[in-house]
Design a protein that fits this description.
There is one protein chain. This protein has 94 residues and is an alpha+beta fold. Helix content is 28%, strand content 35%. Strand 1 and strand 2 form a beta hairpin.
């Protein structure tokens, strides 16, 4: 399964290589932004943009509302997984 995680571009780290620092859940990761860079625009204009990140690449731009909804769903899934792991540790079958 492929999963894109929402993140917000915080800074351009290497314009020549299309690299940027992206804040993903409070963790800064260097990400390739080639896929979202539009010809004729400055990469600096992407600072603050929300993107979907997968295996080190920003695959697409998304709006902030969509990013927040996705982050909420991922948090809920994480909470569900914690509960399922706890149930499994108790040896209770679902």
């Amino acid at each position: 399964m492929c999963l894109g995680i929402p993140g917000q571009i915080s800074t351009i780290t290497n314009a020549a290589c299309y690299l940027a620092k992206v804040n993903i859940g409070g963790v800064l990761r260097e990400v390739n932004i080639t896929c979202i860079a539009e010809e004729g625009t400055e990469l600096q204009d992407l600072v603050g943009a929300w993107v979907l990140v997968h295996v080190g690449f920003a695959l697409s731009r998304i709006d902030e509302d969509e990013a927040q909804r996705t982050l909420q769903i991922l948090a809920e899934l994480g909470e569900l997984q914690v509960e399922l792991d706890a149930i499994q540790a108790l040896g209770v079958s679902a």
